[in-house]
């Protein structure tokens, strides 16, 4: 059995699903949000760990972000990854997906030559673009498949299943290749505390700047990105609604009194809606 | 009206034609956008024997349709379609390319954007044209109730994927005529590096919640796994299905198949009962098409309460129990 | 000598310990903590999962199968478990600190190899038995005795209020080994559950910590080999006091976790609950309560981490552990009391978790040395210092 050289791309995202929004200044209070490993990335790592435990192999995790993003690398090492790479540089900041995939591809080429399989989460929970994975495959000029739910290695070929727009597809590709993993399967394991202790004791984390990668500031970060964010704003779809408070029994009586027909017609059943109608 | 030659392309995603109308919705939006500068609205179709879709797209607003029709394109293969789209876009230089944010579209579009070295905005919920002919793309960002307005000022084409269901399709007009440009496929198409072993339509099993007339949806506000189970009793009484939010699914109170949201299912029930859900946009975006919403939450300011027709300020679990009793009584009577 | 700045930011490792434990307990214990308390049920199915993740070997060295964590990581782990289920936090801290750690400190190499791997893997849950009907704060009143018979000791007596009593696989027994001079001649024995003469009494019906099977343990002619004597004969008091020093860090962390949970629930509730057409968090009285809770929790946490830092630095941490235990448990009672107050009638109802926090907090002022004993320890230390 060939041992696969795997690269898992992960991202640190804010932990809260609703970011604190300062309505007075109209900005995000990003600094009070705790970071965490993006859920789909964690599933991607789980997929790699299962391959490693079944067939052997080596897992490099790579992330791009501020120095604090090292935390998700340590988490990955705790869970069983072998090596971490942190791409951190103010010049890399603000990259859109086109430039992010460009930057990560250069790091993979430099640090992980001869890789077999790149695994990404299908999308991040903060921007949810689902674009970096497929674009990274293009940048590395390798085949790819997105939204994968299960995979099986047969030497240097992998067979994959996915649900794509209501079609259950079975696909096959020769490695090297890239897959993006959904959160539907590959439920991540819990970290062991001894693994955590070891991750910090024997950590293998490489920190790389733009200069280390030989990238000119003109081709990375916000500067090189074709998209521009004009405005970020909060929206809550407000509509005229009927607010009810008080004793539950009273409320429900009123609901049936006033809106019973809505419930009845949705059920296709005639509920007795008016208490004193007969 | 001043006419420009800058074309707006809509990718013809017809695989799931009867369930998924996003291509038609995009043609309608493209028609709307074109009013400002008179851009030609074009559809692009790849496949084998796709004539019916060519006619359908013209009936829904396409003035021009680029067609690559060949038996070897039967498989709806992402890689092949990416190659063809790159070729076509480099040859005809569209100003904008709009793609439905289906699974296929969200894998296809980023790869095309990469090959064309241009920007792409994901999963847009609104599109506008500004006076400079730039596409203002509104996309959800940072997970919360936050939207970002994004442009691609210099690079061409300006590309966006658009969430199904946010725009309304135009009524079809079979009298409409359009120009059909048949483009021959290249003599030597590279072999697919991703081989399709099998593909099976799965809609019957998957779409129970999507098609349900009544959905009972619960969040962490239900209190516990045990209390969450009451929702199943309620749904059964009503003849509906149970949906769940992401935190609920992550806590294993409900399985992943009932996840309502961007990573899960989109629903369009006549009646939605929402219990103990605050309403992060990933969730609320998936229930925009619900006809009548009753939400129960202790917090009257929760976004879910603001979008409800009836907002009941109370403990979700308590209301659920009372509602079960009440409906049982009314059915009996 | 340079002066190092105090760094109040948790290091990446400690942040990750907190997240790791929190994720596990919120997922696994969160949904059942309420029912566990209601039914007084020990969650074996969760304990089983905790075994493979090293929760039973937090501070046991790696060579014996433990995780070998530092003390702050240990305290954070206990705090996070207790934030969700104090009863499970109690199980884990008692097992780790007074059930297993004395063997790390005083065991011979042979004893460590024999006992620690089973404890570290959670195959055996540990317990520590000091309290008796007539002995608690006063260890000198212990009546359980161990009489030498050949190469064995024969133990007779009854231990009460044994945390983990109903689930323990191995208990450390504090017994008198010299009937003539009981105050000076106590010893500690490692006794496994299957030893003939060892039996478990009924589970106590307690006010709080209801999911922990606290029970009596009976010893009737319970014969253990001499090689199960921990430390030297007559070292009992030394072993016991060292165990309690470590144990107090764990109880302090547990109390802190309960306080934290009560505080978070109070912030959330006060924003939701409307009275006089506004959330009660807009009233200054409630704001004062919340501010006091936050300040006390912060202060308690710093005191606890200081004791941990002393321990890891190899300093005499006993008095620091006593201060931390006293303060954390005191504020836990106060904070949970305020939490009930903020919740009003609902807080007094079993439907809300603050009622459980309130009951669970009280005992942290009592076990592993009452608040009165902690003050004694602190005072003794400060008065014995050279002037």
How many domains make up the 3D coordinates of chain B? 2
Question: Which structural class fits the helix and strand makeup of chain B?
Answer: alpha/beta
The largest sheet of chain B is:
7 strands, parallel
Secondary structure: helix percent of chain B = 25-40%
Rounded to an integer, what's the Rg of chain B over CA atoms?
23 Å
The 3D shape of chain B can be described as: elongated
Strand line-up across the major sheet of chain C: 1-4-5-8
Low-confidence runs of at least 5 consecutive residues of chain C:
none
Distance between the termini of chain B: 65 Å
Question: Quick one: CATH superfamily of the largest domain in chain C?
Answer: Butyryl-CoA Dehydrogenase, subunit A, domain 3
Quick one: biggest sheet of chain C?
A: 4 strands, mixed
Question: Helix content range of the residues of chain C, please?
Answer: 40-55%
- The largest sheet of chain B has its strands arranged as 5-9-4-1-2-3-10
Strand fraction of chain B equals 25-35%
CATH class designation of the largest domain in chain B: Alpha Beta
Short description:
The complex is a heterotrimer of chains A (278), B (333) and C (387). With 333 residues, chain B is α/β, with parallel strands linked by helices. Chain B has helices spanning 22-37, 51-59, 78-92, 103-115, 203-206, 208-211, 225-228, 230-238, 246-250, 281-284, 303-306, 316-332, and strands at 8-11, 41-47, 64-69, 96-100, 120-124, 126-129, 135-140, 146-151, 158-162, 179-182, 194-201, 214-218, 241-244, 271-275, 292-297, 310-313.
